[in-house]
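Hi there,

I know you've been waiting on this one. I reran it after we fixed the sequence typo, so this is the corrected version. Both the input and the resulting structure follow.
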Amino acid sequence: MQGVSIVICCYNSSCRIPETLRHIALQEVASDIPWEVIIVNNASKDNTVEIANAEWIKYNCTANFTLVDQPIPGLSAAREKGIEVSAFEYIIFCDDDNWLNENYVNTAFETMESHPDAGIVGGQSIGFFEIEKPFWFDKFSQSFVVEKPLSESNYLAESREYLAGAGMIIRKDFIKDMQAVGFKPILTDRIGKSLMSGGDYELCLIAKYLGYRIFYEENLGFVHFMSEERLNWDYCLRMTTEGHAIPEIIYDIYRSCFSCSQSNKKQIFVKLYYKLMLFYLFYLIFPEERGIKGILSFFTNIHLFFHKQPGSVIQRKLLSSKNKLLFLINNRKLLKQNFILIQQLFIRIKNYRLNIENT
Protein backbone atom coordinates (compact mmCIF):
# COMPACT_ATOMS: atom_id res chain seq x y z
CA MET A 1 0.00 0.00 0.00
CA GLN A 2 1.29 3.45 -0.92
CA GLY A 3 2.24 5.40 2.19
CA VAL A 4 5.11 5.91 4.63
CA SER A 5 6.23 3.81 7.60
CA ILE A 6 8.73 5.37 10.02
CA VAL A 7 10.79 2.69 11.77
CA ILE A 8 12.67 3.77 14.91
CA CYS A 9 15.01 1.17 16.38
CA CYS A 10 15.66 1.64 20.08
CA TYR A 11 18.26 0.27 22.46
CA ASN A 12 18.15 1.96 25.88
CA SER A 13 16.66 5.04 24.23
CA SER A 14 14.62 6.47 27.11
CA CYS A 15 16.66 9.70 27.21
CA ARG A 16 16.73 10.22 23.44
CA ILE A 17 13.31 9.08 22.23
CA PRO A 18 11.13 11.97 23.57
CA GLU A 19 12.63 14.66 21.32
CA THR A 20 12.71 12.29 18.34
CA LEU A 21 9.01 11.48 18.76
CA ARG A 22 8.15 15.16 19.23
CA HIS A 23 9.62 16.00 15.83
CA ILE A 24 7.75 13.10 14.24
CA ALA A 25 4.45 14.10 15.85
CA LEU A 26 4.88 17.61 14.42
CA GLN A 27 5.18 16.34 10.84
CA GLU A 28 3.07 18.26 8.32
CA VAL A 29 1.72 15.41 6.22
CA ALA A 30 -0.78 15.77 3.38
CA SER A 31 -4.15 14.25 4.21
CA ASP A 32 -3.95 11.82 1.27
CA ILE A 33 -0.63 10.28 2.46
CA PRO A 34 -1.20 7.49 4.99
CA TRP A 35 1.66 7.03 7.45
CA GLU A 36 2.60 5.24 10.65
CA VAL A 37 5.26 5.15 13.35
CA ILE A 38 6.83 1.87 14.49
CA ILE A 39 9.05 1.67 17.56
CA VAL A 40 11.22 -1.45 17.65
CA ASN A 41 12.45 -2.16 21.17
CA ASN A 42 15.75 -3.95 20.58
CA ALA A 43 16.48 -5.69 23.90
CA SER A 44 16.49 -2.44 25.88
CA LYS A 45 17.30 -2.69 29.58
CA ASP A 46 15.71 0.64 30.51
CA ASN A 47 12.14 1.97 30.31
CA THR A 48 12.24 2.92 26.62
CA VAL A 49 8.82 1.38 25.93
CA GLU A 50 7.06 3.20 28.77
CA ILE A 51 8.68 6.53 27.92
CA ALA A 52 7.83 6.19 24.21
CA ASN A 53 4.19 5.39 24.98
CA ALA A 54 3.86 8.26 27.44
CA GLU A 55 5.51 10.69 25.05
CA TRP A 56 3.37 9.79 22.03
CA ILE A 57 0.04 10.25 23.78
CA LYS A 58 0.99 13.88 24.49
CA TYR A 59 0.42 14.71 20.84
CA ASN A 60 -2.73 14.75 18.78
CA CYS A 61 -1.12 12.89 15.88
CA THR A 62 -3.22 10.89 13.43
CA ALA A 63 -0.45 8.44 12.49
CA ASN A 64 -0.85 4.90 13.75
CA PHE A 65 1.65 4.15 16.53
CA THR A 66 2.98 0.62 17.06
CA LEU A 67 5.45 -0.82 19.57
CA VAL A 68 7.11 -4.16 18.84
CA ASP A 69 9.91 -6.14 20.47
CA GLN A 70 12.95 -7.58 18.72
CA PRO A 71 14.91 -9.69 21.23
CA ILE A 72 17.65 -10.45 18.67
CA PRO A 73 20.31 -7.77 19.29
CA GLY A 74 21.61 -5.60 16.48
CA LEU A 75 20.39 -2.68 14.42
CA SER A 76 19.98 -4.82 11.29
CA ALA A 77 17.74 -7.30 13.12
CA ALA A 78 15.69 -4.45 14.60
CA ARG A 79 15.18 -2.87 11.18
CA GLU A 80 14.13 -6.23 9.73
CA LYS A 81 11.48 -6.49 12.44
CA GLY A 82 10.24 -3.00 11.67
CA ILE A 83 10.00 -3.83 7.97
CA GLU A 84 8.14 -7.06 8.78
CA VAL A 85 5.32 -5.26 10.62
CA SER A 86 5.22 -2.17 8.39
CA ALA A 87 2.08 -1.47 6.37
CA PHE A 88 3.33 0.89 3.68
CA GLU A 89 5.51 0.90 0.57
CA TYR A 90 8.06 3.50 1.69
CA ILE A 91 10.02 2.91 4.88
CA ILE A 92 12.02 5.59 6.70
CA PHE A 93 14.82 4.40 8.99
CA CYS A 94 14.85 7.03 11.72
CA ASP A 95 17.48 6.56 14.42
CA ASP A 96 16.53 7.41 17.99
CA ASP A 97 18.64 10.59 17.81
CA ASN A 98 17.32 11.87 14.46
CA TRP A 99 15.01 14.91 14.59
CA LEU A 100 13.19 14.91 11.26
CA ASN A 101 12.26 18.22 9.64
CA GLU A 102 8.51 18.82 9.58
CA ASN A 103 8.23 18.05 5.85
CA TYR A 104 10.26 14.83 5.95
CA VAL A 105 7.39 12.37 5.48
CA ASN A 106 5.82 14.44 2.69
CA THR A 107 9.14 14.88 0.87
CA ALA A 108 10.04 11.20 1.28
CA PHE A 109 6.73 10.15 -0.27
CA GLU A 110 6.93 12.63 -3.15
CA THR A 111 10.56 11.75 -3.93
CA MET A 112 9.87 8.03 -4.04
CA GLU A 113 6.79 8.57 -6.20
CA SER A 114 8.68 10.73 -8.71
CA HIS A 115 11.75 8.45 -8.88
CA PRO A 116 10.37 4.91 -9.36
CA ASP A 117 13.82 3.52 -10.25
CA ALA A 118 15.23 4.55 -6.85
CA GLY A 119 15.40 1.73 -4.33
CA ILE A 120 16.93 4.01 -1.71
CA VAL A 121 16.59 7.74 -1.05
CA GLY A 122 18.50 9.81 1.49
CA GLY A 123 18.94 13.40 2.54
CA GLN A 124 21.23 15.66 4.55
CA SER A 125 21.74 16.36 8.23
CA ILE A 126 23.15 18.97 10.55
CA GLY A 127 24.47 18.36 14.04
CA PHE A 128 23.07 19.51 17.37
CA PHE A 129 25.80 19.25 20.00
CA GLU A 130 25.13 18.53 23.66
CA ILE A 131 28.52 20.06 24.51
CA GLU A 132 30.89 22.30 22.57
CA LYS A 133 31.81 20.76 19.23
CA PRO A 134 35.39 19.34 19.32
CA PHE A 135 37.91 21.15 17.14
CA TRP A 136 38.47 18.00 15.08
CA PHE A 137 34.80 17.19 14.45
CA ASP A 138 34.37 18.78 11.02
CA LYS A 139 37.17 16.64 9.56
CA PHE A 140 35.25 13.52 10.59
CA SER A 141 31.66 14.78 10.36
CA GLN A 142 30.73 12.33 7.59
CA SER A 143 31.56 9.43 9.91
CA PHE A 144 29.10 10.88 12.44
CA VAL A 145 26.44 11.27 9.70
CA VAL A 146 26.50 15.05 9.85
CA GLU A 147 26.84 15.90 6.19
CA LYS A 148 25.46 17.11 2.90
CA PRO A 149 26.37 14.24 0.54
CA LEU A 150 25.90 16.15 -2.74
CA SER A 151 25.60 19.80 -3.73
CA GLU A 152 22.08 19.29 -5.12
CA SER A 153 19.39 16.64 -5.54
CA ASN A 154 20.53 13.91 -7.91
CA TYR A 155 21.16 10.23 -8.38
CA LEU A 156 24.43 9.01 -6.88
CA ALA A 157 27.22 8.59 -9.41
CA GLU A 158 28.87 5.19 -9.79
CA SER A 159 31.86 6.50 -7.84
CA ARG A 160 29.74 7.00 -4.70
CA GLU A 161 28.13 3.78 -3.55
CA TYR A 162 26.03 4.67 -0.56
CA LEU A 163 24.03 7.04 1.59
CA ALA A 164 24.00 6.75 5.37
CA GLY A 165 21.29 4.68 7.05
CA ALA A 166 20.11 7.50 9.33
CA GLY A 167 17.01 8.98 7.69
CA MET A 168 17.25 6.54 4.77
CA ILE A 169 14.06 5.72 2.84
CA ILE A 170 13.71 2.26 1.30
CA ARG A 171 11.22 1.04 -1.29
CA LYS A 172 9.43 -2.13 -0.23
CA ASP A 173 9.67 -3.54 -3.77
CA PHE A 174 13.45 -3.50 -3.29
CA ILE A 175 13.01 -5.40 -0.03
CA LYS A 176 10.85 -7.98 -1.83
CA ASP A 177 13.56 -8.40 -4.45
CA MET A 178 16.16 -8.94 -1.70
CA GLN A 179 13.93 -11.60 -0.19
CA ALA A 180 13.40 -13.22 -3.60
CA VAL A 181 17.16 -13.74 -4.06
CA GLY A 182 17.58 -14.93 -0.46
CA PHE A 183 19.69 -12.01 0.71
CA LYS A 184 20.72 -12.18 4.36
CA PRO A 185 22.85 -9.32 5.71
CA ILE A 186 26.39 -10.23 6.71
CA LEU A 187 26.89 -7.00 8.64
CA THR A 188 24.78 -6.77 11.79
CA ASP A 189 25.36 -3.06 12.46
CA ARG A 190 25.46 -1.86 16.05
CA ILE A 191 24.83 -4.39 18.82
CA GLY A 192 24.52 -2.84 22.27
CA LYS A 193 27.55 -0.64 22.85
CA SER A 194 29.44 -2.08 19.89
CA LEU A 195 30.15 0.51 17.19
CA MET A 196 30.23 -2.00 14.32
CA SER A 197 28.42 -0.59 11.29
CA GLY A 198 28.07 -1.17 7.57
CA GLY A 199 24.52 -2.45 7.26
CA ASP A 200 23.45 0.69 5.37
CA TYR A 201 26.41 0.38 3.00
CA GLU A 202 25.60 -3.30 2.41
CA LEU A 203 21.99 -2.39 1.57
CA CYS A 204 23.16 0.22 -0.93
CA LEU A 205 25.47 -2.29 -2.61
CA ILE A 206 22.66 -4.83 -2.92
CA ALA A 207 20.32 -2.16 -4.33
CA LYS A 208 22.89 -1.43 -7.02
CA TYR A 209 23.42 -5.11 -7.81
CA LEU A 210 19.66 -5.64 -8.12
CA GLY A 211 19.42 -2.80 -10.63
CA TYR A 212 18.06 -0.03 -8.41
CA ARG A 213 19.44 3.49 -8.22
CA ILE A 214 20.15 5.61 -5.14
CA PHE A 215 18.83 9.16 -5.00
CA TYR A 216 19.88 12.10 -2.84
CA GLU A 217 17.15 14.66 -2.11
CA GLU A 218 18.45 17.93 -0.66
CA ASN A 219 15.02 18.83 0.77
CA LEU A 220 15.12 15.82 3.07
CA GLY A 221 16.72 17.22 6.20
CA PHE A 222 17.08 16.25 9.81
CA VAL A 223 19.02 17.25 12.89
CA HIS A 224 21.40 14.61 14.24
CA PHE A 225 21.75 14.93 18.01
CA MET A 226 25.36 14.50 19.11
CA SER A 227 25.47 13.39 22.74
CA GLU A 228 28.38 14.23 25.01
CA GLU A 229 29.52 10.61 25.20
CA ARG A 230 30.19 10.57 21.44
CA LEU A 231 32.17 13.80 21.28
CA ASN A 232 35.57 12.54 22.35
CA TRP A 233 38.57 11.29 20.41
CA ASP A 234 38.50 7.77 21.87
CA TYR A 235 34.95 7.28 20.61
CA CYS A 236 35.81 8.71 17.20
CA LEU A 237 38.79 6.37 16.85
CA ARG A 238 36.78 3.31 17.91
CA MET A 239 33.99 4.18 15.52
CA THR A 240 36.14 4.97 12.49
CA THR A 241 39.04 2.52 12.89
CA GLU A 242 36.98 -0.46 14.05
CA GLY A 243 33.26 0.05 13.47
CA HIS A 244 33.66 1.64 10.04
CA ALA A 245 36.98 0.17 8.90
CA ILE A 246 36.47 -3.56 9.45
CA PRO A 247 33.25 -3.76 7.36
CA GLU A 248 35.29 -2.39 4.44
CA ILE A 249 36.70 -5.91 4.11
CA ILE A 250 33.19 -7.19 3.39
CA TYR A 251 32.58 -4.38 0.89
CA ASP A 252 35.78 -5.37 -0.93
CA ILE A 253 34.61 -8.98 -1.10
CA TYR A 254 31.26 -7.86 -2.50
CA ARG A 255 32.92 -5.69 -5.15
CA SER A 256 35.35 -8.41 -6.19
CA CYS A 257 32.67 -11.11 -6.42
CA PHE A 258 30.36 -8.78 -8.36
CA SER A 259 33.11 -7.92 -10.83
CA CYS A 260 33.82 -11.60 -11.42
CA SER A 261 30.13 -12.43 -11.81
CA GLN A 262 29.81 -9.72 -14.47
CA SER A 263 32.78 -11.02 -16.45
CA ASN A 264 32.01 -14.71 -15.80
CA LYS A 265 35.38 -15.17 -14.14
CA LYS A 266 35.85 -17.50 -11.21
CA GLN A 267 37.04 -15.76 -8.06
CA ILE A 268 39.32 -17.76 -5.76
CA PHE A 269 39.19 -16.90 -2.07
CA VAL A 270 42.90 -17.46 -1.37
CA LYS A 271 43.86 -15.08 -4.15
CA LEU A 272 41.46 -12.40 -2.92
CA TYR A 273 42.48 -12.93 0.71
CA TYR A 274 46.16 -12.27 0.08
CA LYS A 275 45.36 -9.44 -2.30
CA LEU A 276 43.46 -7.70 0.50
CA MET A 277 46.25 -8.49 2.95
CA LEU A 278 48.81 -6.80 0.70
CA PHE A 279 46.44 -3.91 -0.03
CA TYR A 280 45.88 -3.07 3.64
CA LEU A 281 49.56 -3.62 4.45
CA PHE A 282 50.48 -1.15 1.72
CA TYR A 283 48.20 1.51 3.24
CA LEU A 284 49.55 0.74 6.70
CA ILE A 285 53.08 1.57 5.55
CA PHE A 286 52.06 4.34 3.16
CA PRO A 287 48.98 6.05 4.66
CA GLU A 288 49.66 9.20 2.63
CA GLU A 289 53.09 9.52 0.98
CA ARG A 290 54.73 6.85 -1.19
CA GLY A 291 58.32 5.67 -1.69
CA ILE A 292 61.17 6.51 0.68
CA LYS A 293 59.27 9.50 2.09
CA GLY A 294 56.38 7.21 2.95
CA ILE A 295 58.61 4.70 4.75
CA LEU A 296 60.29 7.48 6.72
CA SER A 297 56.87 8.93 7.51
CA PHE A 298 55.70 5.53 8.80
CA PHE A 299 58.55 5.37 11.32
CA THR A 300 58.01 9.02 12.23
CA ASN A 301 54.36 8.31 12.97
CA ILE A 302 54.80 4.95 14.70
CA HIS A 303 54.03 6.57 18.06
CA LEU A 304 50.46 7.08 16.82
CA PHE A 305 49.82 3.37 17.37
CA PHE A 306 50.29 3.89 21.10
CA HIS A 307 49.47 7.51 21.91
CA LYS A 308 46.23 9.31 21.08
CA GLN A 309 46.53 12.46 19.00
CA PRO A 310 43.10 14.11 18.73
CA GLY A 311 42.26 15.22 15.21
CA SER A 312 45.01 13.19 13.51
CA VAL A 313 43.83 11.88 10.14
CA ILE A 314 47.04 9.85 9.86
CA GLN A 315 46.32 8.14 13.17
CA ARG A 316 42.88 7.16 11.90
CA LYS A 317 44.36 5.78 8.67
CA LEU A 318 47.10 3.84 10.44
CA LEU A 319 44.79 2.28 13.02
CA SER A 320 42.18 1.46 10.37
CA SER A 321 44.72 -0.45 8.28
CA LYS A 322 46.13 -2.18 11.36
CA ASN A 323 42.68 -3.29 12.51
CA LYS A 324 41.75 -4.56 9.05
CA LEU A 325 44.95 -6.59 8.86
CA LEU A 326 44.38 -8.09 12.30
CA PHE A 327 40.80 -8.96 11.39
CA LEU A 328 41.97 -10.68 8.21
CA ILE A 329 44.55 -12.70 10.12
CA ASN A 330 42.21 -13.72 12.94
CA ASN A 331 39.05 -14.38 10.92
CA ARG A 332 40.15 -16.17 7.76
CA LYS A 333 37.66 -19.01 8.20
CA LEU A 334 34.75 -16.62 8.77
CA LEU A 335 35.73 -14.51 5.78
CA LYS A 336 35.88 -17.60 3.57
CA GLN A 337 32.35 -18.50 4.67
CA ASN A 338 31.19 -14.97 3.86
CA PHE A 339 32.98 -15.13 0.51
CA ILE A 340 31.08 -18.32 -0.40
CA LEU A 341 27.76 -16.80 0.70
CA ILE A 342 28.38 -13.70 -1.42
CA GLN A 343 29.37 -15.78 -4.45
CA GLN A 344 26.18 -17.82 -4.12
CA LEU A 345 24.15 -14.62 -3.73
CA PHE A 346 25.47 -13.23 -7.01
CA ILE A 347 24.56 -16.43 -8.83
CA ARG A 348 20.99 -16.08 -7.54
CA ILE A 349 20.88 -12.36 -8.40
CA LYS A 350 22.09 -13.06 -11.93
CA ASN A 351 19.49 -15.78 -12.48
CA TYR A 352 16.75 -13.66 -10.91
CA ARG A 353 17.44 -10.69 -13.17
CA LEU A 354 17.64 -12.93 -16.24
CA ASN A 355 14.25 -14.43 -15.39
CA ILE A 356 12.74 -10.94 -15.06
CA GLU A 357 14.22 -9.86 -18.40
CA ASN A 358 12.83 -12.97 -20.11
CA THR A 359 9.27 -12.55 -18.80
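Quick highlight: Residues 4-229 form a domain with the Spore Coat Polysaccharide Biosynthesis Protein SpsA; Chain A fold (CATH 3.90.550.10).

Best,
R. S.
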